[in-house]
Specification:
two-stranded antiparallel ribbon; binds S-adenosylmethionine; 2 domains; 11 helices; single chain; alpha/beta; Rossmann fold; elongated; Helicase, Ruva Protein, domain 3
Amino acid sequence: MSSGYLVKDVLKDISQTLSPIIERASREAQLLLMHHLNVDELWLLMNQNSHVKDAHKLFEWVERRAKNEPLEYITQKVSFYSEEFYIAQGALIPRPETELLIDEVIKNVTDKNARMTFVEVGVGSGIISIMLAKTFVNAKIIAVDISQAAIDIAKINIEKFNLGDRIELRLGSLLEPINEHIDYLVSNPPYIANNAALESNLSYEPQNALFGGDIGDEIIKELLDEVLSRNINFFSCEIGYDQKDKIQNYLNKKSFEKLEFYKDFSDFDRGFTLRL
Ligand SMILES: C[S@@+](CC[C@H](N)C(=O)[O-])C[C@H]1O[C@@H](n2cnc3c(N)ncnc32)[C@H](O)[C@@H]1O
């Protein structure tokens, strides 16, 4: 690619390359170019005849996108709950429906100044723990993940938001690294069945962030056992759209105060809060 390329021509070329493969190709062309030039949408509109330097670098990204690599891994940026986070392969790309899990916790803990201990299992990029720390200003958060790559990415985000003194990262499985008393357990665990056929873009995401066992709900059930045996007051958890009945059956005959499910934007069951 020549370095004398104009903005308007670059946008047209990227759109043409991507349109057979992805929806919203012209929007993604804008996003890639904005990221490359470090400019906003208004600048792009006003500078259609400006030259684009180092376009070869941009077209390497376009090639990656044409192979269905998620845009977020290419730009290393993702927005969640109106904040911008760093993201890279090694951590799951945060999904919009996970914002509802944060809302669920906010609904259950009305005192924003409460001095309580949250534990998150499966911290990934850190989005849940960070939003909880920002919301509950006196809370301590311990965030666990089985993947060192995820912990490294979460650490970058925790530093970005200056929350290193409030969120402690621990490498390990489920609640194995936690001996402290837990007031509130939160998790968006892997919950897809191991043999489920998935769209090709999901192959870029860490497999241990997606697959939860042969049935899919094994990790959720292990967490439920922990909650019951450790007497954890609250547990809010994201689930697959078809897992509500299985969870209800699992908790049948167990002793607790309340089990409430919530739905996502498409009206699918997407999570629950268990209160002991
Ligand atoms: C669905 S991702 C959620 C990431 C992030 N919390 C979010 O909502 O975007 C699940 C995370 O759980 C982690 N994980 C999988 N098995 C685990 C286990 N046994 N113990 C702790 N973390 C686990 C994965 O590495 C992954 O980061």
